[in-house]
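Table 4 source record.
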Amino acid sequence: MPCLRRIFAPRLVRLKAGALDRVSIYLKREGWRSPLLLISEGLPDHIVQRIVNTCQLAQTLVVEDASVETEKILIGSLVDPLDCVIGLGGGKTIDLAKSIAFRLGLPFLAIPTSLSNDGFCSPNSSLTSEGKRFTQKARLPVGVVVDLEVVQQAPMSLWLSGVGDLVAKRTAIFDWRRAFHTDGTEFDDLAALLSDASVYQFLAYPQRDTKGIKLLAQGLLFNGVAMEMAGCSRPASGSEHLISHALDLLSENPRLHGLQVGLATYWMGLVQGQNMDDIDALFEITGFWNHWKQNPMSRADWIDALEHAPEIKPGFVTVLSEQDMRKRAADILLTDQRVSQCLC
């Protein structure tokens, strides 16, 4: 009889307007009196001051980049004692703060100021070393605070990036099931169900208002929990992420992670033989297609990415592991009207 499992998941989750002004209350409830606050470089001062002026902080540092080199410098400058790490800002700051908290064995509180991807609640950190990006193991945050008013003010491109990263679960789950049936890859039904459901939850109300933003935040958060449950990135990452990672390496002008992943999701969904009409409609409603029309990428870059995507994670079985499917993908890249309008 299979054993029950225990997972690490956030116990503090606040997705509400004005949540930023209540962070001091959340800290007191958790008993955190000596927090380290890491903030994104260039973050508007009025956002930073809502934390600095209301919370008792041990130290505040500005994050310029999410590199191993920066991490070492920051760790070397820390005061003692610290009892938690807070990441306030964009994805790079969240990733670095998560990594530092993991290394120090401290609880981590994520306060994203945009919803561009699911990194604010994932069990991994994406860092760079000598300019090369890699992913390393970390832990989910103990708490997630999303001020819906703050993230609504983030640039439209970041919102669309979050939409793209969320819908990627459609193709990721398909690839995961395929890997289970063809290669014996371990599959987790509950993690897959949670991740898959997060997409349909947002599809029911894909609006950029308070309700829609909360649904997007919930969906991205659930993806992180699903990865923790599965013990791997499979619930959130498949062939569409391989394409995006390849673009990051090959293109001179890569786009935001979620924008690339979203377009690759539509493309890979067609390769997998899925009906992508609902994703097509979602991208039309949200302005995702229009954004790509106005900011197309090189078709040659995407062709190169298709060729090199299977090399990104050797042994990671997806639809792109099969040569005939890669040929099908190349044909669709050249003939599908929706994909073609995003490339030049």
